[in-house]
Specification:
By secondary structure, this protein is of the alpha+beta class. The chain is 39% helix and 39% strand. Strand 5 and strand 6 form a beta hairpin.
Length: 106
């Protein structure tokens, strides 16, 4: 049996922690670049259609506009992150984005 014969279609949720599907979380650089997780943090979760292999759920494929984006499973720790550290992290990311935008205008 080929992999394409066993692929299934389902729905995943874009959350602030990543793409949630069957109690696992997924991510990829394109989604981070598009700001999906930040948007979910600010405006709430939303659904996306996906394709996946039920035998190997280490990757899922998001159907997004006219493209398919693969996302890899990530391991989220059960440990809570200190809210002060989390705030500093997000501030640093925003500062970096601002600097990168400034560099691209030059």
């Amino acid at each position: 049996m080929q992999i394409t014969e066993r692929l299934e279609v389902s729905v995943a949720y874009i959350t602030a922690k990543g793409i949630k599907f069957n109690d696992l979380y997924y991510t990829n650089g394109k989604m981070i670049q598009l700001g999906w997780f930040e948007r979910a943090l600010k405006k709430g979760e939303w659904k996306v259609p996906i394709i996946y292999d039920p035998i190997d759920v280490s990757e899922i494929y998001i159907l997004h506009l006219y493209q398919v984006i693969n996302a890899s499973a990530i391991n989220l720790s059960d440990h809570k992150i200190n809210s002060d550290i989390q705030k500093l992290y997000f501030e640093a990311v925003q500062l970096l984005k601002t600097r990168l935008k400034g560099d691209s205008k030059e």
